[in-house]
Amino acid sequence: MKIRPSQNQTRIDSLGASVVTFSYDADIVTKNARIWKIEYQSNSESKVILPPTSQIVSFNKIPLDIIDDVFVMPSGNISISFIIESLKTHKFTINEGGNIHQITIITSSNIRNFIQESKAIQFDVDDDAPMMALVPKILVQENSQILFNNEKMEFKKFNQNSTHYWIRLDPPTSGTFYIIPLQSSESTDALRSSGGCLIATATYGTELSSQVQSLRELRDNVVSDTNLGKSFMAGFDQFYYSFSPTIADWERQSPLFKEVVKIIITPILSTLSILNYVDIDSESEMLVYGIGIILLNVGLYVGMPTFLIMKIRKWIQNNLKNGILVPTKNASN
């Protein structure tokens, strides 16, 4: 396809030797194939709608109002220069049941931190540029959810074939997308049983980190080997996935918060690693070790802080009693 702008006409030569020509009451020219310029004359207020990926270079008159990509211009001779950001094609692969599928996203924005968690995916965008995504149907069904910064986002399916959907996404700002499959209880269970450690992944930067891999191995090879462990994980997952996407999103937005989370979860990761060095051959052993790990964490997160607070309080009371620490009196007394 070739697009040929020339003053007040644009000619589009498409495949199949078809030609479409648009005429309008304005002159459109390009400079160095990058800067576009609209020139026209109007006796009253006018509206100019620019492409979603455009960036203004200059006006000859200040707009009366700007609403999204719509510019309300005063009467008279109008000249608007702008550039259209080049679109980028981002391609990612996912592994579903041993089969490799490709996700294609077309946008002017940069895409970072693309992560697959079972059938769910997440990725970050740098700005509010609209995007068109070619997504496998295993990810997006009628009752799937797309979240942006942990809030549900509506999306439109433009086209589809036997395996993929074309969908448009319009992020209001920079942030994180989650595409969560909800087409069946089986797919939801697959997301949870896959060992998707959202908080640990966000804390350590990648699902390939030793800490995240250790958690997954512990879950799959130790805890899930017993019926008691499977029952515990089923209940734990209901609780964990109710808040972990929010915590992970906050970590990506705040490096300081990420460091705080790292400090908080380090003790529990250390206690859980104990299970990697024991042999659990029965339900009763799983119960004993499980209760032991829980009590150990209660001691670390509740017992030790409580003990320290009591010791500090007692120290302050003793020093006040002995006159070492004396409250400051008001000058009036």
Structure description:
The chain has 333 residues and is an alpha+beta fold. It folds into three domains: 2-84, Immunoglobulin-like (Sandwich), CATH 2.60.40; 87-184, no CATH class; 195-323, no CATH class. It contains seven helices and 18 strands. The chain has a five-stranded antiparallel beta sheet with strand order 1-2-3-8-5, with no helix packed on it. A five-stranded antiparallel beta sheet has the order 9-10-13-17-16, with no helix packed on it. Strand 6 (65-67) and strand 7 form a beta hairpin.
Task: Compile the SSE list and pairings.
Blueprint: E1 2-13, E2 19-31, E3 35-42, E4 46-49, E5 54-59, E6 65-67, E7 70-73, E8 76-84, E9 88-96, E10 99-107, E11 111-117, E12 120-125, E13 131-136, E14 145-148, E15 151-152, E16 156-160, E17 164-169, E18 175-180, H1 185-193, H2 198-204, H3 210-221, H4 227-240, H5 244-253, H6 255-272, H7 283-321
